[in-house]
Amino acid sequence: MVDKRLLVKLILMLMMMIMVLEFAMGKLHRVGDKHGWNPNVNYSQWSSHEQFYVGDWLLFNFDKHYFNVLEVNKTSYDNCNDQGFIHNITRGGRDVVQLTETRPYYFLSSGGYCFHGMKVVVNVEIPLAPAPAPAKNGSPQSTSAGSYMVLVLLMISIAVAYLVLLF
Predict the structure, then answer these.
(1) Residues 6+ apart with CB under 8 A from 6
(2) Nearest 5 degrees, angle CA 81-CA 44-CA 38?
(3) Model's pTM, two decimal places?
(4) C-alpha 97: how far from its chain's center?
(5) How far is 158 from 10, CA to CA, in rounded Å?
C-alpha cells in the first residue's frame, strides 16, 4: 500500500506545479495586431493598449525579404540607428521573442524602415494578482477562468489529502 504521507506530498507538489504553470505561461502579443510588422503602422498606439508582463511573448509577422526585427537600446531606438543592435530577432518572418525581464524593450526594423514607423517600445512589468472588481448592483464578483480552475484544483487536492489522512 502507498504511504499516506508520500501521497499527500505528491498531491501538494502537483498543486504547486499547477499554480506555477498558471503564472509561468505568458500571453502572446501579436505586434501590430492584424497589420503585423509593416511600415506606416502606429506601434506606439498599439503598445499603449497592451499590458506586457514578464513571461509574455511578442510575435512579429512580416515579409522577411524586406523587413527585420532588431532589439536595440533607447538611444538607437530614438535615432532609428540599426548599428550595434543588441539582438537580431529575425529568423523567418514569424518570429517570437520572450520578455524575460522587467524593463523597456526597444525594437526596430533596419534599412530605413524605422523612419516609416517600424519601431516599438514595450514596457514590461511584473505580473501582479489582479484586484477584485467591485460588485455591481449587488451581483457577485467575477473571476477569470484560469483563477477559478486553480481554485477548484486546490480544493480537490485538499479534499483528497484529507480523505487519505482519514483512511
Answers:
(1) none
(2) 65
(3) 0.65
(4) 10
(5) 12
